[in-house]
Write a structure and sequence with these properties.
alpha+beta, 2 domains, restriction system, Type-I_RS_S_subunit, Restrct_endonuc_typeI_TRD, Type I restriction-modification system specificity subunit S, four-stranded antiparallel beta sheet, Adenine-n6-DNA-methyltransferase TaqI, Chain A, domain 2, about 35% helix
Length: about 375
């Protein structure tokens, strides 16, 4: 099988700083950033200006700088930002399918990332990328590989859509049972979150270890924006008996991210697991009293209205935003009967069980996809 280097097939051009403009502006084109290589959901625009570097649908785009260096996208057109680079086909006689090469490069993301330069911020090594050998079977085989991988990717996308639909279902159930938090159209009494709280506690500031320690420790990255606890990328910590009473979170406790960027501060989730874990200083643990269910409080704060309240009250401090425990407890919240809250929590538990099944299926599909890519590109 013929092999050619990336530099034989493409000319690589680094992107430039792009100024975003309003979506309703005239003479606009798409402004492509790193997140656009992963999904097509939030489209931004910039002025149609010759000073920018442009990608067409026949080009491949690679994330060049940062933690996501090596991420590959294609079949997108627009101006690329300064952390991206575009690979444009050279005018030669080599027959290849751009989508095939892009998928091959996706199979080499880890290799490209592992060979980045830069001590603090990773940068793709131009030399490593240009000298990457691309196996080029016949066009017929290339096309068949693209079709096969697209079919598997379609299954992955459908599974992700099913999981996303469960998030929409959670919000719909909340609104149906309790009404719009902004309108309070069911006329529930209004209280403060502090009125529903037995105890609030900041997390530990002790330094965590990558590998050793009695307890896993949750940090702000372990709370998702849509209100879930992730047990990935954990560090570990030792706590004595006195510290454990303060800094362990148990099943049903509410966790609140008090410090983060302005758009992420206030991430809220209920810890769902039987085994207790520690929690770090940028988090607040809140234990509700018998008037409230933590699942209900979390859903309130994760509603569109709750997100807006948190965004408006966050204070910027040296590039980060903050909402402290007293401010959290000062937030107004409507108060349905605890029986209705508990009914809601039971429904959410069933939804989460379905989500866990779908997530396991998604993991299996993604693992199979990676294995398939390795096989097809080994020939």
């Amino acid at each position: 099988m013929k092999e050619l280097k990336i530099q034989d097939l493409f000319q690589i051009s680094k992107g430039k700083k792009v100024e975003q403009i309003a979506n309703d502006s005239k003479d606009k084109i798409r402004y492509i950033q790193i997140e656009d290589l992963r999904n097509n959901e939030t489209i931004k625009y910039c002025k149609n200006d010759n000073k920018y570097i442009y990608a067409s649908k026949d080009d491949i785009i690679i994330a060049w700088d940062g933690a996501n260096a090596g991420t590959i996208g294609y079949n997108i057109e627009g101006a690329i930002g300064s952390t991206l680079a575009v690979l444009k086909r050279k005018n030669n006689d080599f027959a290849f399918n751009t989508a095939y090469v892009a998928k091959f490069m996706q199979s080499k993301t880890r290799f490209l990332r592992d060979n980045c330069t830069g001590a603090t911020i990773p940068h793709i090594s131009r030399k490593v990328l240009e000298n990457l050998n691309v196996p080029l079977p016949s066009m017929d085989v290339q096309n068949k590989i693209v079709i096969l991988l697209d079919k598997v990717q379609s299954l992955i996308d459908k599974r992700k859509a099913q999981i996303a639909a469960l998030s929409d279902l959670t919000h719909s159930v909340f609104l149906e049972m309790f009404g719009d938090p902004h309108l309070n159209n069911k006329n529930w009494p209004i209280v403060k979150i502090g009125d529903l709280t037995i105890k609030s506690q900041y997390g530990t500031s002790k330094k965590a270890s990558e590998f050793t320690g009695k307890y896993p420790i949750l940090r702000m990255n372990n709370i998702s924006y849509d209100g879930r606890v992730s047990m990935e990328d954990l560090k570990y910590i030792d706590l004595d008996e006195k510290e454990a009473k303060k800094y362990l979170v148990h099943k049903g406790d509410l966790l609140f991210n008090r410090t983060n960027s302005k758009e992420l501060v206030g991430k809220t989730a209920v810890y769902p697991y039987d085994e207790p874990v520690a929690f770090a200083g940028y988090l607040i643990k809140l234990i509700p009293n018998d008037k409230a269910n933590s699942v209900f409080i979390s859903a309130y704060l994760n509603s569109l209205y709750g997100k807006k309240v948190l965004l408006n009250m966050a204070k910027n401090i040296v590039g980060m935003a903050n909402i402290n425990a007293e401010e959290l407890k000062s937030i107004n919240i409507y108060l349905p009967p605890i029986e209705l809250q508990n009914e809601f929590a039971n429904i959410i538990e069933n939804i989460e069980e379905k989500r866990n099944i779908l997530n396991q299926s998604l993991i299996q599909l993604e693992n199979n996809f990676q294995s398939l890519m390795q096989r097809v590109f080994r020939g």
